[in-house]
Structure formats: C-alpha cells, structure tokens
Design brief:
12 strands; alpha/beta; 30% helix
Length: 233
C-alpha cells in the first residue's frame, strides 16, 4: 500500500460554526467518494485526507455524550462575555476553544492508515507528547481517559491536550485542542471534559512565558506526519 498523503490547510482565525461546516463538507466529499468506489469501481479513487489548523474565538462545545450541567454559565452570561456555545456530534463532554490554542481537525480516511479508532487517538496523543518533550515537559496518559496530561501520578493531574472525534465510514472529523498560550480562566466556567478532580494547563503556564505559536504548530505538524506515516501534498 502506498504512503497516504495529507493536505494541510491553515484556517487561521475562524468562528466555530464556519469551521464545523467546512469540516462537514470535506467529510461528505470523502464519504461520497467511498460510495462511488463501492458502486462504480471504474471511477474509484482514494478519498483526500486533510489536516486543518485553526484558532477559534471563545467558544464552548458539548459532545453528544456530555452533560449541560458541566457548563457553569447561563445563556445570558455567555452572551455578556461574547462566548459561543454549541452542542455538537463528536464524542466526549464539554471543552473550551479560544485564542492561543492549536485546534487540529484531521479529516482522515483511516482505511488508508489503520481502521482502528483507539490507535488513531493514541497517535494524536503521541504527537503532542513528543512536542512537549521538545520543551522539556513530560506528557502522559491516564488509563480510561483520552488526551495528554502532566503530572499523571499527582493528586491533581493537569490536561494540556483534549481530544474529541467523530468517525463516519472510517472518515474522521473534529480532533484535538492543544493549549499553548490559552487563557486558562475560561476553563473556570465549565467542568472540563466532565472531570472535576483534575486541572487544565497550557505550554505557556508550564514554562512561565508566552510561546512562539507558529513554532509549536510546526512541531505538532511534523510529529503528526511521523506518527501516521503520511506525506504532505
């Protein structure tokens, strides 16, 4: 099997709804191509893979298995603070996206990689763990929980990478949120991921100063390509 290829698109600053709609269009294109492959073999082609990076204005998103009780603000308070709020079709509970956070949306056909959603999640985590290591920070996993955590053996581990995905016919969407220069105060208005006995952190908070955002993006991109074994187009 030939090496999968991925097209990278930097969406820069984009509101959540616009990015969600954009992902849905790319996902639908991939699913439609899979249907063509099944019904019209003479027109078969591999679905295209994409990696989208974006920074969102302040927004809370609640996954399909999440509880509204984990949002601690009323609709009026959300409006007063100019924070968007969406109930969405990914897995997981509630999380925050905002400036200074790398939000990554892989639109991958896992049949070109490995059709195993658990391995897919572990590879996303490993790319972040390797990025953190470049900054002298040890990231780890907590059994039964997705994402990347710091000080996992302490009384209050801190999450630095959150993951929530959707998969349709082995095409993925949604993805991960890596706190780089994120304003952590916004996590105080939710129970992040529905877990109230653990904390949240950022690269800047751990290192004591704001980080070069583009440099962190570049590292994360490189490790994602390495973990999944794809080439760029």
């Amino acid at each position: 099997m030939s090496q999968p290829t991925v097209e990278f698109r930097d969406l820069a600053d984009m509101r959540y709804q616009e990015a969600w709609d954009y992902q849905e269009r790319l996902l639908r294109q991939g699913v439609d191509q899979k249907m063509v492959n099944r019904k019209e073999p003479e027109n078969a082609a591999l679905p295209k893979n994409y990696l989208l990076f974006v920074e969102h204005p302040h927004v809370y998103t609640l996954g399909k298995s999440g509880s509204t009780d984990n949002l601690l603000l009323s609709e009026q308070e959300l409006e007063e603070r100019s924070i968007d709020y969406f109930k969405i079709n990914r897995g997981g509970d509630i999380t925050y996206h905002g400036p200074g956070q790398i939000v990554g949306y892989p639109i991958f056909d896992l049949e070109q990689f490995k059709p195993d959603i658990h391995e897919y999640l572990r590879r996303l985590e490993e790319a972040c763990i390797r990025t953190l290591a470049d900054y002298g920070i040890e990231g780890g996993r907590i059994p039964g929980l997705t994402g990347v955590w710091l000080d996992i053996d302490s009384e209050r581990p801190r999450k630095i990478l959150a993951i929530g995905v959707r998969c349709a016919r082995w095409m993925t969407m949604h993805g991960f949120a890596f706190n780089v220069n994120t304003d952590l105060d916004y996590f105080g208005h939710i129970i992040p991921c529905g877990i109230d006995d653990k904390g949240v952190t950022s690269l800047a908070a751990e290192l004591g100063e704001k980080q070069d955002f583009k440099a962190v993006q570049k590292k994360m991109k490189g490790y994602l390509a390495d973990e999944f074994g794809f080439g760029w187009v």
